[in-house]
Amino acid sequence: MESIVKACLNGDRSRADHPGVPVTPAELAQAASDAVLAGADAVHFHPRGADERESLQWSDVEPAVAAVRERCPGLAVGVSTRQEIEPDMDKRLALIGEWTGPDFASVNWHEEGAERVADLLVERGIGIEAGLFTPSAAQQFLAWQGPVVRVLVEALPGISPGADGVAAARAILAVLPAGYEVVVHGENDWAWPVLEWARAQGYGLRAGFEDMLTGPRGESVTDNGQLVAYLRGK
Fold first, then answer.
1. Which end of the chain has fewer surrounding CB within 10 Å, N or C?
2. Which CATH architecture fits 5-231?
């Protein structure tokens, strides 16, 4: 089975980071379409409110998910639950408890209350991507023992321990037993080196403005589709 390629369309980036970062539902739908044409199998994005800030409110999440699904029928669509969007645990759970989609959501296992978020997503019938930034987060995830769609091994400078992105990814992977679908990716300066290594190892991959703002050799890009195309070797 061929490993999955995901597009991460925006993350916590803004138009100030890159003018091509998609924010509105229409922009996310176009970005998803560009990514699919370039070879993406699934997309992940952070929906925004009217103020262009990340949001967990279903009234903001639903239009973004619906726009992407309408533009890209059958595409697997995922969003974020990260703590920084709503730091108050009870409020975050209340917001997620109103969701009736998307297909999956990422849960960062180094965050306090990750198990509670994951349990709620399972209850809502939403798949989970377990985001593992550190080996200790991987150990916490394994202790949970719940169902997931896949595991994200995420090498982030300044957060993941290691001399470089590949070392950071290796340290997390060393904790994981076999049997999980795994996507490995880095961010910023670590992004492309980690992806080149992960591709050689046969892991799933992801690319997009959440992880990098330029091509593998520092090339300027205009949209997420170009980043996925670089990842696919086009």
1. N
2. Alpha-Beta Barrel (3.20)
